[in-house]
Amino acid sequence: MSVFLDSDDIFALGPVAAVATLQDALRAGLDPDDDVPRAVIPLSKGQALIMPSEAGQWFGVKVATVAPDNPALGLERINATYLLHDAETLCPVAILDGVALTTLRTPAVSVAACLDLLGALADESGDGLRLVVFGVGPQGEGHVRTIRAHAPLIDVSVVTRRGGLVPAWADRHLAADDAALADYVRVADVVVTATSAREPVFDGHLVRDGAVVIAVGSHEPSARELDGALLGRATVVVESRDVALREAGDVVLAAAEGLLDPSSLVSLADLFGVLGQGNGRAIANSRPTVVKTTGMAWEDLVVAVAAYERWCARA
């Protein structure tokens, strides 16, 4: 019989364990390019994403839906369910809250890709990282929580179109047209974009050399949060070159503009497999580093298994 893991069960794994689990899987030889490409199905009110993956003794599949009109109805824009199977028998063993799983694993992937760079930036600052986060939703908050679990933070600015109340996890809430925003971006150690924007949300020239920019909002080839100017001067880390060139609008559009050489993309396999190093010090810090992810099924599987095994150990 399948057990059900709710959001509390999944978040109980915690960001530190989620990051470590992803890094361990990559170090052990998991190749993101072995994933089956996810299916994106257009629907009358949005889209569905079907994301299957098999690794080791496990098979899992996430079914997610994106409904752009839902927030106006007081409903969540993204909903998801995850089904975990034993790969030997193909029997289902657990049903997981897919939204919570996505909320935990997405920032964990971001931090796993640049963990040592974040540590180096914190060491250089002496007092903590300065963050600018575009987007006030679960992914914005999740990235702050996950970064904070691995490095000290001294200042967090959140940015939305109109500004508003300051969330508990930030120091200020700026509007996108606030004249002070450029100054905060210029001094930021880390910039996170977790929005539904389809055009760049800030001027990439503002980002200082050595800073880290994490972009997670877009998974469509025609939508971007970052401009080509930034990607053209940055080291760009992606989950998979093929996936980035198929789904990551930030990458696809910068390459189409002639500002980004696709062969320069650094994949997670490069960082953890080919190079045999699980750390961002393999990345030059003399220019910005962009970590651009679109979400892949193997990430859900790895974190889902870790959450399930933790639940079993405590059941």
* Mean model confidence by pLDDT: 93
What can be said about the biggest beta sheet? 8 strands, parallel
> What is the global morphology?
globular
Report how far apart the termini are.
15 Å
The strand order across the widest sheet is 9-8-7-10-11-14-12-13
Poorly predicted segments: 274-281
Order of helices and strands: EHHEEEEEHEHEEHEEHEHHEHEH
What is the number of strand segments? 14
How would you describe the oligomerization state of the chains in this entry?
single chain
Fold and architecture overview:
The chain has 315 residues and is an alpha/beta fold. Helix content is 35%, strand content 25%. The chain has 10 helices and 14 strands. The strands form 2 sheets. An 8-stranded parallel beta sheet has the order 9-8-7-10-11-14-12-13, sandwiched between helices. Strand 3 and strand 4 form a beta hairpin. Helix 2 packs across helix 10 and helix 3 packs across helix 10. The longest helix has 28 residues. About 3% of the residues have low confidence.
Summarize, please:
The protein is an alpha/beta fold.
List the helices and strands and how they pair.
Elements: E1 3-5, H1 7-11, H2 15-27, E2 39-43, E3 46-55, E4 58-66, E5 78-86, E6 92-97, H3 98-125, E7 129-134, H4 138-148, E8 153-160, E9 172-175, H5 181-187, E10 190-193, E11 212-215, H6 228-233, E12 235-238, H7 241-247, H8 249-256, E13 266-267, H9 268-274, E14 289-292, H10 297-314
Parallel strand pairs: 1-6, 7-8, 7-10, 8-9, 10-11, 11-14, 12-13, 12-14
Antiparallel strand pairs: 2-3, 3-4, 4-5, 5-6
Helix pairs in contact: 2-3, 2-10, 3-4, 3-10
